[in-house]
């Protein structure tokens, strides 16, 4: 896999303020080209009990080479003890959009 490969990262967050702080930091640091926030409901097992919480899902577009730094930044800012940060490859995209993502996360000159 190429470090220039586009990936879609998802990260669930418990509050709008925390989600906005993470989104802004990732874009400002050129770790993400775009971050979208969507309200969701999550069911999960935590510390032996089933939990149900409203959350926000961050949908993050970036490249594979930025994933480790993105994880470190998001984890440092995240309110959760164990944040959900998962990535999947983007196998197809409008070529101009893919170019824009790569340019948006490229090192500043």
From TrEMBL:
Q: Which InterPro entries match?
A: Ion_tolerance_CutA, N-reg_PII-like_a/b, N-reg_PII/ATP_PRibTrfase_C
Question: Which residues constitute the signal peptide according to the record?
Answer: none
Q: Which GO terms describe its biological process?
A: response to metal ion
According to the UniProt entry, its GO molecular function terms are:
copper ion binding
Q: Which SUPFAM superfamilies match?
A: GlnB-like (SSF54913)
Q: Which family does it belong to?
A: Belongs to the CutA family.
Q: What is the designated name of this protein?
A: Divalent-cation tolerance protein CutA
> What species is this protein from?
Sphingomonas paucimobilis
